[in-house]
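Progress report, Aim 2. The chain analyzed during this reporting quarter is listed below.
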Amino acid sequence: MSQLHFIIDKMEDKNAFMKVCYFETSVYGQLQSPEEWTPTSRVLVDSDQKHLIYVVDTPSGWEYIRFPLKLWKQIDEALAKDQDIVLVTSLTDNGEAHQSFLLKDFRRECLELIENMKDNANYGEDMADIVEDYFATTLENVR
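Predicted structure tokens for the chain:
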């Protein structure tokens, strides 16, 4: 298991029902057998790096798909709109999405994690405030 940490560089709306996320273009050449990746329905948080992490199974074990803090407002928007999150795993020669897959249960897992992190110092002193700020719409909808 290589335990690489692939960081999402950008997210964009595909349509009203879906957000698509992309790695930096240079990462696509480093991916090992992304067509064999399987979503795990598991979302974690790295409170030191301020990353949400989606775990995928791979032929060699698992990989971390990291969503940095700069994207949390977009994730909040996707959660509030009940949009699916799709990960692009390969690009065409002209840089367009070629292969992708749904990050299964991303919304449900994020909602549980956000609810757990809210007002919880176990994730670090500042994480509760960060969650309240970056996921304000989501938290308002679940109250």
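The first helix runs from residue 72 to 80. The beta strands are 5-15, 18-23, 38-46, 51-58, 61-68, 84-91, 97-102. These observations will guide the mutagenesis work planned for the next reporting period.
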